[in-house]
Amino acid sequence: MRSTIRFFPVILFSWLIFAAGGLLYAEDQSAHEVTRVFSFDMAYMLTGLRHSGWGIGVKYEHRVVPNLSIAGGYSHTIVKVSNSKDIWCATVGLNVQASYYPLAQDMRRLFFSLGWGTEFLNYFGDDKPKDENVSVHEVIGTAGWRYIFSPTFGLDIFAGYIYLLPQTHAYGDVHDYVKNGVQVGAGCKKIL
Q: Residue 25 to residues 19, 46, 109, 148, 151: CA-CA distances in angstroms?
């Protein structure tokens, strides 16, 4: 956590440079209108690999009205929770986000998102805790820039934060094995 806070100004500055570059990016206004987007969230895979497991996340976003879209996401990870005990955790996550695009009527350029998610945790192994089924709720906020390179491919540069609501029944430090905190990255998008 301390290293994340120390590097936050650098990460934020880098994101701002990419977003400012997006303002200079000249998109053709007659290009394909973006109304549906599908993507994989590789952060779940990285979380899984970091804890001797695996993970995957997918997201579908659909424009509801001009400048506004709704997205739904699904994730699944299996991670080892304790190095000293045989405790594993399988997570299934569901989330929904609303995104606002102030600079374009379709889903491109600058966006702001706010959402809610739930991670369902199931512990297993020889030393599993007494409460083996737990759910963790999260509030998600994101800002970013979506580049559209072709009628079928886009790229998001984003920064955001996932806040986990307090949970007393999860094993160990749930912040270590459930995606949370400062999120900065880039994601490839399949335009549908």
A: 10, 30, 9, 10, 16
**Token reading at 172:** 């160990």
Q: What does pTM read for this prediction?
A: 0.79
Where b means 16+ CB within 10 Å and e means fewer, 44-79 reads bbebbeebebebebebebebeeebebebebebbbbb
Q: Tokens in use for 28?
A: 């053709």
Alpha carbon distance, N-terminus to C-terminus of the chain: 37
Task: Give the burial class of 126: count Cβ atoms within 10 A of its Cβ; 0-12 exposed, 13-18 middle, 19 or more buried.
Answer: exposed
- Residue among 188, 169, 159, 143 at smallest CA distance from 4: 159
Burial letters 83-94, b for 16+ CB under 10 A, else e: eeeebbbebebe
Read off the pLDDT band of 30 (50, 70, 90): very low
| Res. 90: pLDDT tops 60 | yes
3-class DSSP assignment, residue 38: strand
Number of H helices, E strands in the chain: 3, 8
User: What digits encode the pLDDT tens for the residues 158-177?
Assistant: 999 999 988 767 787 777 77
The residue that leads in pLDDT, 27 or 9, is: 9
Looking at residue 120, its amino acid is F
